[in-house]
Protein backbone atom coordinates (compact mmCIF):
# COMPACT_ATOMS: atom_id res chain seq x y z
CA UNK A 1 0.00 0.00 0.00
CA UNK A 2 1.34 3.38 -1.00
CA UNK A 3 1.40 5.80 1.87
CA UNK A 4 1.76 9.54 2.37
CA UNK A 5 4.08 10.98 4.99
CA UNK A 6 2.22 11.41 8.31
CA UNK A 7 1.81 15.18 7.97
CA UNK A 8 0.33 15.04 4.47
CA UNK A 9 -2.43 17.54 3.90
CA UNK A 10 -2.21 19.05 7.32
CA UNK A 11 1.01 21.01 7.20
CA UNK A 12 1.50 24.68 6.54
CA UNK A 13 -1.25 25.15 3.95
CA UNK A 14 -4.96 24.58 4.54
CA UNK A 15 -5.57 24.98 0.80
CA UNK A 16 -3.00 22.27 0.09
CA UNK A 17 -4.85 19.97 2.47
CA UNK A 18 -8.19 20.59 0.74
CA UNK A 19 -6.72 20.05 -2.72
CA UNK A 20 -5.06 16.84 -1.54
CA UNK A 21 -8.40 15.62 -0.18
CA UNK A 22 -10.06 16.31 -3.55
CA UNK A 23 -7.39 14.28 -5.32
CA UNK A 24 -7.83 11.41 -2.86
CA UNK A 25 -11.57 11.40 -3.63
CA UNK A 26 -10.83 11.27 -7.37
CA UNK A 27 -8.44 8.38 -6.77
CA UNK A 28 -11.04 6.40 -4.83
CA UNK A 29 -13.48 6.96 -7.69
CA UNK A 30 -10.96 5.54 -10.16
CA UNK A 31 -10.52 8.97 -11.81
CA UNK A 32 -6.74 8.66 -11.89
CA UNK A 33 -6.16 11.31 -14.58
CA UNK A 34 -8.14 13.85 -12.54
CA UNK A 35 -6.26 12.92 -9.36
CA UNK A 36 -2.91 13.40 -11.10
CA UNK A 37 -4.02 16.72 -12.60
CA UNK A 38 -5.04 18.07 -9.17
CA UNK A 39 -1.84 16.86 -7.49
CA UNK A 40 0.34 18.42 -10.21
CA UNK A 41 -1.50 21.74 -9.94
CA UNK A 42 -0.95 21.71 -6.18
CA UNK A 43 2.76 20.97 -6.65
CA UNK A 44 3.14 23.85 -9.13
CA UNK A 45 1.50 26.29 -6.71
CA UNK A 46 3.66 25.16 -3.81
CA UNK A 47 6.84 25.49 -5.88
CA UNK A 48 5.73 28.99 -6.86
CA UNK A 49 5.25 29.93 -3.19
CA UNK A 50 8.37 28.29 -1.76
CA UNK A 51 10.79 28.47 -4.69
CA UNK A 52 13.83 26.21 -4.44
CA UNK A 53 13.83 25.91 -0.65
CA UNK A 54 13.28 22.55 0.98
CA UNK A 55 9.76 22.66 2.40
CA UNK A 56 7.58 20.00 4.00
CA UNK A 57 4.55 20.74 1.81
CA UNK A 58 6.59 20.60 -1.40
CA UNK A 59 8.11 17.25 -0.42
CA UNK A 60 4.67 15.88 0.44
CA UNK A 61 3.23 17.17 -2.84
CA UNK A 62 6.05 15.44 -4.73
CA UNK A 63 5.08 12.24 -2.95
CA UNK A 64 1.41 12.58 -3.88
CA UNK A 65 2.27 13.17 -7.53
CA UNK A 66 4.50 10.09 -7.35
CA UNK A 67 1.63 8.04 -5.93
CA UNK A 68 -0.70 9.15 -8.73
CA UNK A 69 1.90 8.29 -11.37
CA UNK A 70 2.48 4.91 -9.73
CA UNK A 71 -1.25 4.17 -9.73
CA UNK A 72 -1.28 4.87 -13.47
CA UNK A 73 1.63 2.52 -14.11
CA UNK A 74 4.10 5.31 -14.91
CA UNK A 75 6.83 3.86 -12.72
CA UNK A 76 9.90 5.74 -13.99
CA UNK A 77 8.13 9.08 -13.59
CA UNK A 78 6.88 8.08 -10.13
CA UNK A 79 10.40 7.11 -9.05
CA UNK A 80 11.76 10.49 -10.16
CA UNK A 81 9.23 12.28 -7.94
CA UNK A 82 9.91 9.96 -4.99
CA UNK A 83 13.67 10.48 -5.31
CA UNK A 84 13.21 14.26 -5.27
CA UNK A 85 10.90 13.99 -2.25
CA UNK A 86 13.39 11.69 -0.50
CA UNK A 87 16.22 14.16 -1.00
CA UNK A 88 14.06 16.97 0.34
CA UNK A 89 12.88 15.04 3.41
CA UNK A 90 16.46 14.00 4.23
CA UNK A 91 17.52 17.64 3.94
CA UNK A 92 14.72 18.67 6.30
CA UNK A 93 14.90 15.87 8.88
CA UNK A 94 17.97 13.70 8.33
CA UNK A 95 17.95 10.00 7.44
CA UNK A 96 16.27 8.77 10.64
CA UNK A 97 12.75 10.15 10.17
CA UNK A 98 9.35 8.65 9.48
CA UNK A 99 8.80 10.79 6.36
CA UNK A 100 12.01 9.41 4.89
CA UNK A 101 10.88 5.88 5.70
CA UNK A 102 7.48 6.41 4.00
CA UNK A 103 9.07 7.59 0.76
CA UNK A 104 11.57 4.71 0.82
CA UNK A 105 8.63 2.33 1.14
CA UNK A 106 6.94 3.87 -1.90
CA UNK A 107 10.19 3.71 -3.88
CA UNK A 108 10.47 0.03 -2.98
CA UNK A 109 7.05 -0.67 -4.51
CA UNK A 110 8.17 0.95 -7.76
CA UNK A 111 11.26 -1.26 -7.84
CA UNK A 112 9.08 -4.31 -7.32
CA UNK A 113 6.89 -3.36 -10.28
CA UNK A 114 9.97 -2.78 -12.42
CA UNK A 115 11.10 -6.37 -11.86
CA UNK A 116 13.73 -5.32 -9.32
CA UNK A 117 12.14 -7.18 -6.43
CA UNK A 118 15.33 -7.91 -4.49
CA UNK A 119 16.28 -4.21 -4.48
CA UNK A 120 12.75 -3.32 -3.46
CA UNK A 121 12.80 -5.74 -0.53
CA UNK A 122 16.11 -4.34 0.70
CA UNK A 123 14.68 -0.82 0.56
CA UNK A 124 11.52 -1.88 2.40
CA UNK A 125 13.60 -3.51 5.13
CA UNK A 126 15.63 -0.28 5.41
CA UNK A 127 12.43 1.75 5.77
CA UNK A 128 11.14 -0.65 8.42
CA UNK A 129 14.40 -0.41 10.37
CA UNK A 130 14.09 3.39 10.41
CA UNK A 131 10.55 3.11 11.77
CA UNK A 132 11.58 0.59 14.43
CA UNK A 133 14.25 3.00 15.66
CA UNK A 134 11.82 5.92 15.50
CA UNK A 135 8.73 4.37 17.09
CA UNK A 136 9.89 1.16 18.75
CA UNK A 137 8.89 -2.35 17.68
CA UNK A 138 5.29 -2.34 18.97
CA UNK A 139 3.71 0.60 17.18
CA UNK A 140 0.87 0.93 14.69
CA UNK A 141 3.31 2.50 12.22
CA UNK A 142 5.28 -0.77 12.22
CA UNK A 143 2.33 -3.01 11.36
CA UNK A 144 1.60 -1.46 7.94
CA UNK A 145 5.20 -1.77 6.63
CA UNK A 146 5.21 -5.39 7.83
CA UNK A 147 2.06 -5.97 5.80
CA UNK A 148 3.65 -4.41 2.71
CA UNK A 149 6.79 -6.47 3.23
CA UNK A 150 4.72 -9.62 3.45
CA UNK A 151 3.14 -8.85 0.07
CA UNK A 152 6.55 -8.20 -1.47
CA UNK A 153 7.94 -11.48 -0.16
CA UNK A 154 4.89 -13.25 -1.63
CA UNK A 155 5.63 -11.65 -5.00
CA UNK A 156 9.17 -13.02 -4.77
CA UNK A 157 7.88 -16.50 -3.92
CA UNK A 158 9.42 -16.30 -0.43
CA UNK A 159 6.36 -17.57 1.41
CA UNK A 160 7.98 -18.46 4.73
CA UNK A 161 9.45 -14.95 5.03
CA UNK A 162 6.10 -13.46 4.06
CA UNK A 163 4.29 -15.52 6.69
CA UNK A 164 6.71 -14.34 9.38
CA UNK A 165 6.03 -10.67 8.49
CA UNK A 166 2.26 -11.16 8.43
CA UNK A 167 2.31 -12.95 11.79
CA UNK A 168 4.46 -10.24 13.38
CA UNK A 169 2.15 -7.54 12.02
CA UNK A 170 -0.91 -9.44 13.27
CA UNK A 171 0.57 -9.68 16.76
CA UNK A 172 1.28 -5.94 16.88
CA UNK A 173 -2.19 -4.98 15.64
CA UNK A 174 -3.89 -7.25 18.16
CA UNK A 175 -1.87 -5.80 21.04
CA UNK A 176 -2.48 -2.15 20.18
CA UNK A 177 -6.05 -2.59 18.87
CA UNK A 178 -7.70 -5.19 21.11
CA UNK A 179 -11.05 -3.80 19.97
CA UNK A 180 -10.17 -4.99 16.42
CA UNK A 181 -8.96 -3.01 13.42
CA UNK A 182 -9.12 -3.25 9.62
CA UNK A 183 -5.35 -3.83 9.46
CA UNK A 184 -5.92 -7.03 11.40
CA UNK A 185 -8.18 -8.13 8.56
CA UNK A 186 -5.41 -7.38 6.05
CA UNK A 187 -2.94 -9.53 8.02
CA UNK A 188 -5.45 -12.37 8.27
CA UNK A 189 -6.08 -12.15 4.54
CA UNK A 190 -2.34 -12.15 3.87
CA UNK A 191 -1.89 -15.35 5.86
CA UNK A 192 -4.75 -16.81 3.81
CA UNK A 193 -2.79 -15.93 0.64
CA UNK A 194 0.24 -17.81 1.97
CA UNK A 195 -1.74 -20.98 2.62
CA UNK A 196 -3.46 -20.64 -0.76
CA UNK A 197 -0.05 -20.44 -2.44
CA UNK A 198 1.10 -23.50 -0.49
CA UNK A 199 -2.02 -25.41 -1.64
CA UNK A 200 -3.21 -25.69 1.96
CA UNK A 201 -6.71 -24.93 0.80
CA UNK A 202 -8.66 -25.67 3.99
CA UNK A 203 -6.26 -23.48 5.99
CA UNK A 204 -6.61 -20.75 3.37
CA UNK A 205 -10.40 -20.88 3.62
CA UNK A 206 -10.20 -20.69 7.42
CA UNK A 207 -7.99 -17.58 7.38
CA UNK A 208 -9.94 -15.90 4.60
CA UNK A 209 -13.04 -16.57 6.69
CA UNK A 210 -11.42 -14.83 9.67
CA UNK A 211 -10.51 -11.86 7.44
CA UNK A 212 -14.07 -11.77 6.09
CA UNK A 213 -15.52 -11.56 9.60
CA UNK A 214 -13.01 -8.90 10.61
CA UNK A 215 -13.77 -6.73 7.58
CA UNK A 216 -17.51 -7.02 8.20
CA UNK A 217 -16.98 -5.82 11.79
CA UNK A 218 -14.57 -2.99 11.00
CA UNK A 219 -15.46 -1.58 7.57
CA UNK A 220 -18.89 -3.09 7.01
CA UNK A 221 -20.45 -5.87 4.91
CA UNK A 222 -20.70 -3.66 1.80
CA UNK A 223 -17.02 -2.67 1.69
CA UNK A 224 -14.55 -3.33 -1.11
CA UNK A 225 -12.45 -5.33 1.38
CA UNK A 226 -15.32 -7.74 2.02
CA UNK A 227 -15.92 -8.14 -1.72
CA UNK A 228 -12.25 -8.83 -2.37
CA UNK A 229 -11.89 -11.51 0.31
CA UNK A 230 -15.11 -13.19 -0.88
CA UNK A 231 -13.50 -13.40 -4.34
CA UNK A 232 -10.39 -14.92 -2.74
CA UNK A 233 -12.59 -17.55 -1.10
CA UNK A 234 -14.07 -18.21 -4.56
CA UNK A 235 -10.59 -18.77 -6.00
CA UNK A 236 -9.79 -21.39 -3.37
CA UNK A 237 -13.09 -23.16 -4.01
CA UNK A 238 -12.26 -23.17 -7.72
CA UNK A 239 -8.87 -24.76 -6.99
CA UNK A 240 -10.73 -27.43 -5.02
CA UNK A 241 -12.93 -28.16 -8.03
CA UNK A 242 -16.07 -26.81 -6.34
CA UNK A 243 -17.22 -24.88 -9.40
CA UNK A 244 -20.80 -24.17 -8.36
CA UNK A 245 -19.74 -22.86 -4.95
CA UNK A 246 -16.91 -20.89 -6.55
CA UNK A 247 -19.21 -19.32 -9.15
CA UNK A 248 -21.67 -18.31 -6.42
CA UNK A 249 -18.92 -16.68 -4.34
CA UNK A 250 -17.50 -14.82 -7.34
CA UNK A 251 -20.96 -13.44 -8.11
CA UNK A 252 -21.37 -12.38 -4.46
CA UNK A 253 -17.94 -10.76 -4.21
CA UNK A 254 -18.25 -8.98 -7.55
CA UNK A 255 -21.66 -7.57 -6.61
CA UNK A 256 -20.25 -6.18 -3.35
CA UNK A 257 -17.27 -4.60 -5.13
CA UNK A 258 -19.58 -3.02 -7.73
CA UNK A 259 -21.74 -1.50 -5.00
CA UNK A 260 -18.68 -0.28 -3.12
CA UNK A 261 -16.70 1.35 -5.96
CA UNK A 262 -18.98 1.44 -9.02
CA UNK A 263 -19.09 -0.53 -12.26
CA UNK A 264 -16.29 1.38 -13.99
CA UNK A 265 -13.67 1.13 -11.25
CA UNK A 266 -10.44 -0.77 -12.11
CA UNK A 267 -11.00 -3.05 -9.08
CA UNK A 268 -13.97 -4.62 -10.90
CA UNK A 269 -11.84 -6.01 -13.76
CA UNK A 270 -9.94 -8.74 -11.88
CA UNK A 271 -12.95 -10.50 -10.31
CA UNK A 272 -14.77 -10.24 -13.67
CA UNK A 273 -11.91 -12.08 -15.36
CA UNK A 274 -11.83 -14.72 -12.61
CA UNK A 275 -15.59 -15.17 -12.90
CA UNK A 276 -15.22 -15.61 -16.67
CA UNK A 277 -12.64 -18.36 -16.08
CA UNK A 278 -14.96 -20.05 -13.60
CA UNK A 279 -17.89 -19.95 -16.04
CA UNK A 280 -15.72 -21.27 -18.88
CA UNK A 281 -14.56 -24.22 -16.77
CA UNK A 282 -18.20 -24.96 -15.89
CA UNK A 283 -19.13 -24.99 -19.59
CA UNK A 284 -21.00 -21.67 -19.52
CA UNK A 285 -19.23 -20.13 -22.52
CA UNK A 286 -21.94 -17.53 -23.08
CA UNK A 287 -21.59 -16.28 -19.49
CA UNK A 288 -17.79 -16.21 -19.79
CA UNK A 289 -18.00 -14.09 -22.95
CA UNK A 290 -20.35 -11.62 -21.25
CA UNK A 291 -17.86 -11.16 -18.38
CA UNK A 292 -14.88 -10.75 -20.70
CA UNK A 293 -16.67 -8.20 -22.89
CA UNK A 294 -17.52 -6.12 -19.83
Automatic annotation (TrEMBL):
<keyword id="KW-0802">TPR repeat</keyword>
<protein>
    <recommendedName>
        <fullName>Kinesin light chain</fullName>
    </recommendedName>
</protein>
<dbReference type="InterPro" id="IPR019734">
    <property type="entry name" value="TPR_rpt"/>
</dbReference>
<dbReference type="Pfam" id="PF13424">
    <property type="entry name" value="TPR_12"/>
</dbReference>
<keyword id="KW-0677">Repeat</keyword>
<dbReference type="InterPro" id="IPR011990">
    <property type="entry name" value="TPR-like_helical_dom_sf"/>
</dbReference>
Amino acid sequence: TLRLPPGAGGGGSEEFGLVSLLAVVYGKQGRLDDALRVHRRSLRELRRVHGDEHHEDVATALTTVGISLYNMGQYAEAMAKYEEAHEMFVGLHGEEHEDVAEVLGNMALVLGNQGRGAEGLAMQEKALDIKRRTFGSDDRDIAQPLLSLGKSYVNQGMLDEALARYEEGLGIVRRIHPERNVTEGCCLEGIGHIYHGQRRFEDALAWYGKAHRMYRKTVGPESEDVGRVVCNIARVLSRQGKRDDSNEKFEEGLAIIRRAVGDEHPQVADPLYSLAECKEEAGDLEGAIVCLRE
